[in-house]
Specification:
It is a single chain. The chain is an alpha+beta fold. The protein folds into 2 domains: 26-136 and 335-404, no CATH class; 178-312, no CATH class. It is built from 15 helices and 16 strands. A hairpin with a 4-residue loop joins strand 14 and strand 15. The radius of gyration is 22 Å and the shape is elongated.
Length: 406
């Protein structure tokens, strides 16, 4: 239930706690049940990977109807709390005195695992979301784009969490049209030639001196990928990613500034969309850094070199005060102790999956709170500043380890 302490160049944690817990009566929701490891199928146990050998792992929470609601991997402390609250009552004193534990309780209430008494009713999810919560008006292009993406997904008839997450992830991707098919390449070799990094291209020397191609020719992949010849990231360390999002009509010129900038500032990996669909997505070019300061220096060089370049913009990426052309995010660190399906998630995948789950929950539960507002408030509890789209220093790491979809 308690989060893992991490140190990183991220924003301070917003005040995400919504319920003090001191005068509340709680109960475990009758709509969920706990499955211990031995109750899972062999296939599901295998998906849990090394997590099933973690001494703190207790089991999974699932909906009684198995209707696609999220499954949550829980520790013995969380299981004990849920078991205690099978009989309605207050939170135990040790939780009331622990801010991180209270934050975890709030997540359980927002997810419907726990409920709070209000008169004769038991409330959870959007019903406990404060109507007067402070949400600043988006001040930047990317913040506005991110809000538009969530409101668009909320307006759809779809109520499936994974479908909504996919919609959020694809937002601001340009459609493949005959015009783009004529202007942009649709093969890996064509992309390399277009960007002038193929043999004989004007950017090939920089590439050969500093980078090694790690794309597997025999394996179909939407990305062309390179790793640095000089820099190897520390295993399991928090990494930072820098997005370049030019309008596709200015892709080549933007890449010519991008490549030397990330090379000189110490990126350890970068990737480019490997076909026309990859080049029309907003996050078409991405570099990875071990140090936030290095990322910021790369951003400065790229921005200065691309003044006036039209931007497409990456939803759910953090603004660098230079418009929508360049932005950043921070992927969850790779953790082999997590379930197999969670070991590698990108920043935007992590964000969109949580937003998709929250939107789906809000759509299933009638509430005066708009679904998009509830989704934002739920994401705050995972340690995300939903105005700047930056992770805070602790909660999102803990949430990454706890809430999953099987």
């Amino acid at each position: 239930m308690k989060g893992r302490s991490q140190t990183s160049a991220v924003a301070e944690r917003p005040d995400a706690a919504r319920v003090s817990g001191r005068v509340e009566t709680y109960r475990a929701s009758p709509g969920f049940r706990i499955l211990q490891l031995e109750e899972l199928s062999a296939e599901d146990q295998e998906l849990l990977g090394p997590l099933r050998k973690d001494p703190s792992f207790y089991g999974l929470i699932c909906a009684q109807t198995r209707n696609g609601a999220p499954l949550m991997a829980i520790c013995s402390e969380t299981a004990k709390l849920i078991d205690t609250l099978a009989t309605p009552g207050p939170l135990p004193p040790d939780i009331l005195d622990d801010p991180e534990a209270l934050l975890a309780v709030n997540r359980l209430v927002f997810d419907g695992i726990l409920q709070i008494a209000r008169g004769t009713e038991w409330l959870c999810g959007p019903a406990v979301c404060p109507a007067d919560s402070a949400l600043k008006r988006p001040s930047g292009l990317l913040a506005q784009l991110s809000l538009e993406a969530i409101q668009h997904a909320a307006s759809l008839e779809a109520a499936d969490a994974m479908e909504l997450a996919a919609c959020l992830y694809r937002y601001n991707t340009l459609p493949v049209t005959p015009q783009w098919l004529r202007r942009l390449p649709d093969t890996a070799a064509g992309v390399e030639e277009y960007l002038q990094i193929a043999t004989g291209g004007c950017q090939r020397k920089v590439l050969d001196q500093n980078w090694i191609c790690v794309t597997t020719p025999a394996k179909e992949t939407p990305w062309l990928m390179w790793s640095s010849r000089r820099i190897v990231p520390e295993s399991g360390a928090l990494g930072y990613k820098l997005y370049l999002s030019p309008h596709p009509s200015h892709l080549r010129d933007a890449f010519h500034v991008w490549l030397p900038a990330i090379t000189d500032t110490g990126a350890y990996h970068f990737k480019v969309g490997g076909n026309v669909r990859g080049l029309l997505r907003p996050d078409k070019i991405v570099a990875y850094f071990s140090e936030h300061d290095s990322l910021m220096e790369a951003s400065r060089l790229i921005t200065n070199g691309l003044l006036g370049c039209p931007a497409q913009g990456v939803p759910f990426a953090s603004d660098l005060n230079c418009g929508a052309l360049v932005s950043w995010g921070s992927d969850p660190p790779f953790d082999e102790t997590l379930p197999v399906w969670m070991q590698r998630q990108s920043w935007r995948q992590w964000i969109c999956r949580r937003l998709g789950s929250a939107l789906a929950r809000a759509k299933r539960q009638n509430s005066e709170i708009p679904a998009w507002r509830f989704a934002l408030e739920r994401l705050r509890l995972d340690g995300i500043d939903v105005e700047s789209w930056t992770p805070t220093s602790t909660p999102w790491f803990a949430a990454n380890a706890e809430v999953t979809t099987l």
